[in-house]
Amino acid sequence: MEEALVNWSRAQFALTAMYHWIFVPLTLGLSFIIAFMETIYVRTGDAEWKRITKFWMTLFGINFAIGVATGIILEFEFGTNWSNYSWFVGDIFGAPLAIEGILAFFMESTFIAVMFFGWNKVSKKFHLLSTWLVAVGANLSALWILVANAWMQNPVGTRFNPDTARNEMTNFWDVLFSPVAINKFLHTVQSGFVLASVFVIGISAWYLMKKREERLAKRSMLVAGIFGLVMSVLLIVSGDMSARLMAKYQPVKFAAMENLYEGQTNAPLVAVGLLRSSPDQEEHKKEDFILKIEIPNFLSYMAFLDANAYVPGIKDLIHGNPERGIISTAEKIEKGKIAVAALKSYKDARKAGDTAAADSSLALVNAHYSYFGYGFLQDEHEAIPPIQLTFYSFRIMVGLGFLFVLLFATTLYLLRKKKMHGQKWFGLTAICMIPLAYLATQMGWIVAEVGRQPWVIQDLMPTRAAVSQINTSAVQLTFVLFAITFTILLIAEIRIMVKQIHKGPKEGGTK
Amino acid sequence: MNFLIRIFRFYYEGFRSMTVGKTLWLIILIKLFILFAFFRLFLFPDFLGQRFKSDEEKSEYVIEQFNRQRE
Questions:
Q1: Which of B31, B40, B37, B48 has the alpha carbon at shortest distance from A478?
Q2: Is A472 strand, coil or helix?
Q3: N or C: which end of chain B has fewer CB within 10 A?
Q4: CA A380 to the chain's CA centroid
């Protein structure tokens, strides 16, 4: 496969997914914040809470409208640019995505109309129920997509059908409730909740700095501060779980994320580090630390809940470590090549009506299928993901995550002490946190997706085997067109949203 | 019938009274047009569906591709 085609196809998918993810997390989080605000309104009957709810609902509506259907392009790309992959995954994606379409999307789109048009037309309680159902529906939509993504990170609940060369779902519940899927869903939606809370606090801080809408700003900060603080703590918990799952199911990604080249017991966690490519070992993708600040034993504890545990490094995982029961990547490549060749022999034998040959080829496919994807690798070092990008992205994401905890705690402290007024430093910090919250979620996806390279489906299919044989120029053209379209959409969103924020809430709210 | 009329009125009045929403709906419609009438139609054909008629042919092609990449 031509390298330029693979790289452009990856760039195109990354561009689409990253732009799509600009809109999604705010929808996920703001829907719940609005639901909480409206709940307070219904319980207290205080009209100011209704006004607050309507204001944030307008911003929610802008983000929802601009972002809607941006994800559909990813599905176009599956059929055109990633046809080998689409064929190979079979019905695994079909079931979750169909459920998303039927259940969550309709639930969301039906009740969103009541949420926006239903004020004074339906009862307060039914309106509130609709707002909650929009929030639940939006997050359920995310669930099915994330289940599909989790399957790619940890393919379970399926069997490979050599006759069709497709994976078939054998147990829907294993796919839905795999630990990776549950964790991915929780961690991802929690990141959306945190982002939305930062967004609400940042905009409220702007109002306070401008000495406008003070009551709205403080009340909004209170809801977002509590929601954000709880969710950011839970985000750290689910992130911690995610590290353990990664160490178990994607050890090379884990080692790359930590730049752990040599495995060790009592492995320290590098809290802060600067990397430089090792000049004499470039082909091994080895990175040296220029400087590092370590937390002793913490990596072992994070990965296995045991400070003395052995954490395998990239060297162990690539070259093998018989003492630790780790087989080398070269051996896996051999097994994978046998499985891929046996699949072809099986199909040929079936065509020729040679049952004996077909049976022996099938036995080889089944025996080595768990290494199938390694059969496409040319070299063992191809199994190592880009280390610097994974390493830095992880640290930026985690660092910002802790910063958000501090932001929420400070917000609540200043509100409680009635010291929010005139805190210009806080206002500026809170506003600056909005783009940082977006940066943090994008970094999270880079860790998840770049860190799992070369795999599009862990151990079963590398990215380059997934790509369709089309003209590279066609991919370049669509890349540019997407970049233009999405940038226009993003500018439109920012302009409309900024205009609406400047305008502020109406007495009766806006539609 | 009365119920359907009420639903129609609910949406009709809702859309009529929109302010920001009108701009947003315009953006949504333009976006959907670009996505489906341009991108989908001209730039994103079904790669396997266009080349092969049966699932058998598709699977043979994919296996062939796999085998070529293994070498």
A1: B40
A2: helix
A3: N
A4: 27
**pTM score, whole prediction:** 0.93
Main-chain phi, psi angles of A457, to 5 degrees: -125, 120
Say if residue A289's pLDDT is above 80. yes
Q: How far is A181 from chain B (nearest CA, A)?
A: 28
Q: How far is B1 from chain A (nearest CA, A)?
A: 19
8 Å CB contact between A487 and A36: no
Nearest to B70 among A65, A73, A376 (CB): A376
pLDDT-based confidence at A280, cuts 50/70/90?
low
**pLDDT for A355-370, tens place per residue?**
999 999 999 999 999 9
With beta carbons less than 8 A apart as the criterion, state whether A509 and A51 touch.
yes
Q: What does the H/E/C string look like for B2-71?
A: HHHHHHHHHHHHHHHCCCHHHHHHHHHHHHHHHHHHHHHHHHCCCHHHHHCCCHHHHHHHHHHHHHHHHC
Q: Return the amino acid letter for B28.
A: I
**How many angstroms from the chain centroid is the CA of residue A378?**
29
Q: What pLDDT digit, counting tens, does each position of A441-467 carry?
A: 999 999 999 999 999 999 999 999 999
Percent of chain A residues past pLDDT 90, beyond the cut: 82
User: What are the residue boundaries of the structural domains of chain B, listed by start?
Assistant: 2-70
The tokens describing A155, both together, are 């393919």
Pairwise CA distance, residues A249 & A467, whole Å: 24
Burial A199-214 (b: 16+ CB within 10 A, else e): bbbbbbbbbbbeeebe
**Average model confidence (pLDDT) for chain A?**
92
* Each residue's pLDDT tens digit, A53-78: 999 999 999 999 888 878 888 888 99
Whether omega before A155 lies within 30 degrees of 0, making that bond cis, reads: no
Please state the rounded mean pLDDT for residues A259-276: 94
Q: Do A73 and B46 touch (CB under 8 A)?
A: no
| Residue recorded with tokens 């070529």 | B68
Residue A230, both tokens: 């709880």
- Look up the ipTM and state it: 0.87
